[in-house]
Amino acid sequence: MENLKNISFESVILNDGFWKSKCDINKNVSIKSVYARFEETGRFNAMRFAYKEGDPIHVFYDSDVAKWIEAVAYLVQKEGGYAEEQKIIDALIADMIAHQLPSGYINSYFIQKEPEAIFTKRSEHELYCAGHLIEAAIAYHKATGKRPMLDMMLRYVDCIERAFITEKTAKFVTCGHEEIELALVRLYEYTGVKKYLDMALFFLDNRRPDVDADPLYDSREKSYCQSHLPVREQTEALGHAVRAVYLYIAMEEAAQKTGDKELSAACDALFEDIINKKMFITGGIGSARDGEAFTVPFDLPNLEAYSESCAAIGLMLFALSLQKKRLDSRFADTIERVMYNNLLSSVSMDGKSFFYENTLEVHLASVGKDTALVPSKRRRLPRYQRLEVFDCSCCPPNINRILARLGDFFFSEHGDSLVVNQFGALSLSTEKISLDMATEYPSNGKIKLSGKNSAYSSLLIRRPWWCVNYELSGAEAISEENGYLRVNLPVGEFELSIDFNMKPFFIRSNPKVRENCGRVALCYGPTVFCLERNDNDCELNALSVALDSDFECDFSTDIPMVTARGRIAKPTDSLYNIVTADTDFTQPATLRFIPYRCFANRSPCDMLVWVPYFL
Amino acid sequence: MENLKNISFESVILNDGFWKSKCDINKNVSIKSVYARFEETGRFNAMRFAYKEGDPIHVFYDSDVAKWIEAVAYLVQKEGGYAEEQKIIDALIADMIAHQLPSGYINSYFIQKEPEAIFTKRSEHELYCAGHLIEAAIAYHKATGKRPMLDMMLRYVDCIERAFITEKTAKFVTCGHEEIELALVRLYEYTGVKKYLDMALFFLDNRRPDVDADPLYDSREKSYCQSHLPVREQTEALGHAVRAVYLYIAMEEAAQKTGDKELSAACDALFEDIINKKMFITGGIGSARDGEAFTVPFDLPNLEAYSESCAAIGLMLFALSLQKKRLDSRFADTIERVMYNNLLSSVSMDGKSFFYENTLEVHLASVGKDTALVPSKRRRLPRYQRLEVFDCSCCPPNINRILARLGDFFFSEHGDSLVVNQFGALSLSTEKISLDMATEYPSNGKIKLSGKNSAYSSLLIRRPWWCVNYELSGAEAISEENGYLRVNLPVGEFELSIDFNMKPFFIRSNPKVRENCGRVALCYGPTVFCLERNDNDCELNALSVALDSDFECDFSTDIPMVTARGRIAKPTDSLYNIVTADTDFTQPATLRFIPYRCFANRSPCDMLVWVPYFL
Predict the structure, then answer these.
(1) ipTM of the assembly?
(2) How far is A298 from chain B (nearest CA, A)?
């Protein structure tokens, strides 16, 4: 532990600019839209215990609504207000408390649908729902000071402790879907009550192959729910990606509280495994639709990318936890990769609709019909168009809550240094410093930092992984430490600028990634770009881009565009054509790229991130 | 109808050379091996009506054995002998006849396992088995003159006529898996009894969406078994590929017998659809594992290619039927494409083991583990290694029978011309001509034709689609007609040579084939080549080939090799790497190609047909 801590969003005010506009849309549109859809689809009805036979209900409804409550709580904490939403939440909590069992048990599905099955089905998300309700209860109590939801959950946690630990009446030991573990560590952090940390450790320590016998998970392989090895021995990210990263967050947080070196080392290994072998260039993780899972190293298919929104959010949160452990810019680099790509692709630019899966290629000719790669019966959701709500609608409220607390990701403290992890137009205001960050990031890599410092001796500014050279003015970099530039910070007023020299560049994959061989991705700063057929009227894979192309950038519109020089394969009548030495079968073409985060915001069309290249 | 007819294998003797060696292995190894495996796996046991509870049995066992009988019959017809095999077959037929029902019904599965379900289950291959038994009975009678099997099947056909047509006691009208239709046309052709043609037409005419209501096929979409439209209205190859081409063969054969122009036109459209939009470069068809089916146009994925051996064989037979209708070299071109690629890839070089699926790429890192593209639970068979027998072992005896009659594909007659469709070291001997074809095809494009002609006025020699230029000596081409070179043939002795100038060349796909964009396939004459990791020790997709490469060919070994110049992407430590303008991230490499038909004959390893290119 290097005396690092993250600075909460409470101290961060987003100013007019990129992130404020995104977070405003989240606040003004997305959160309201998710609420409306959740009312329409009976989620609130079920949680109000108004379920009647035939109504929609599902084991994970409580968690969907919990994440929405958590999102609202962050807004209340930050801005106050939201009286209407608070009224809804307070009434809901009252209904829940009225139906909480004498034991303290509270779950809208099991109480109404299968009371006899309480704590008997490992696969049915019971403790996952409990975990999300705990997170929401903490946030809501912190934001409003209102105790009922927190008290309800403390009673439930006591019930859980009895059923799983002291009396062992539950028919399983660890929940199939992780979440309770990280929630219990947060509850310990919030209340200081050590029992909650002990409970988290109990669930972590018992996640191992010899504990739970569950036919479902045994048939799927125990790695699906990370029960294949004791958690301290896990070094490869395996199984359902959301479950995995939620577990890793709990492991890292618990390790930081207990000083458990083995647990900490496992988290380091798991993070390395993800970012070096199993992460899409967009920050997405979990390659396989089947099991929503991590797969073998370097298996990163584009058309079939699963890359669930919740998994990318989980990776951000895992990196945020790791960022407290050690100064290493790869944590914030990873957060940045997700923030500007997979996180924002998961919500439409108007804030109303969402992707569950974030594909890296759309090929409409293969959609909605039986094809070899994506038979329609295996196709879970239309991945070329966002939807307002899903049957399994975990992602939309997850996006709500992460954007509501986005300020959490920007700053940390390292000893007497202020660490600047992310960049955006914002102000930081704490007892120690008032800092203004002025920037057009991610359209421009120039960042001006100014303000008044009363406590820090230096700034540690992350040098992004993509930055080949930079210019500092108003200060000098004393050193570069694990990807951070150290700059002396005088007490009193300060002003300095840094320019990361943002320009379009190409990325190639490790050649072990079969799908990306012979291809490059265009990036601009942290932003991954893609081709959309809306701007390039042809089979996108028939295009190739010149590696020595000049670029034209137009960032003046809602959907920025970078134009590059390339070629296109001439069409043919025959399926197979002899290549003769004297015939050039390509012709010049202009390739028009847009940010990946903007794809599928116009009419549905083909999209491609990894583009064939030539030199 | 242009007065065309195919010349039977009976008149064709393969001489020492490429095809003789393949057919000798089929005769001496494969047919014996398939017999042994079918005995071991209880197929013969079941057909001898010796099934006991717990023994293996399946609805398609009769068809497996029938194809093996048909293969043996062709060998007997050609060479005589095979006393041992004939004894086995005669005893088997006696057992079957002893258990044939009074109605004439004969099916080892239904009589022993589900007698109450006879003719009630459209999906259960009953008439498919009947069709294969009819084909075998014709071949066996023709070869041996023995009537019992043919008589048994004539009784069964009468039973089928009553159940399906006159008395309509059967609970479905058309069988889910086509085969009976083409068998009935062949039976008509063999016996001259028009009733059998009428029965074929009955089954063809009733294959339409408004006839059979079968929940299984309705849920799969009626196109799975080609019941989505009346057959005369079908213009797109859809559904299960083997079923489809077996249907098309029957349609074309029936059209030729009846002069039905609509049926004939449908076959032309279906053939065009296949070869222009749905055929792998290897001649494989049926892109999707799911449903073993044709998919949307240009959906030809390499790693996931299904490309069943039986489907490719069906395509050969469909083209063989079409070849009788019209002089058009594309029929024989298609046959050649299958012969030298998908047909031979489907059997190991030692003749002992078989591919059910013929993939166009092997990526071992993705095999046997959960990956996004090929989760192991969906993986039907190990496609990187041939097996001696499968649970569903339709392909091995299909390969047996097609190689046993391979001579059928070489010659046809067109008016008073002899048509040379395929090339190989062989002799043709009929009343009209004695012809020797001397060639090292497919290693060399030089072909010497000599002999004594007593009836033909000209030769029509197919100019293969891949032939850019040729040299004729000893004769002159009068004209080129639909892909055939017309050469005058004097009465009496003749000798001429043609050299198709075989050399390595590259093929590119129509750019609508997403998977092959930016890639080429190396071919040499009709032979498609591939890279195997055994010869190229790296991630194969990281290689790229120079379009202007020179080639070195070594055809002196069992596995020929063509060497080309190329590059390889340098390895990287990171998953994603900035491409800087001043760094060449490739280095020179030599690419070693082997014929696709030879892949997976050494240790299991990666394989790649479509290779990235550069210029």
Answers:
(1) 0.95
(2) 8
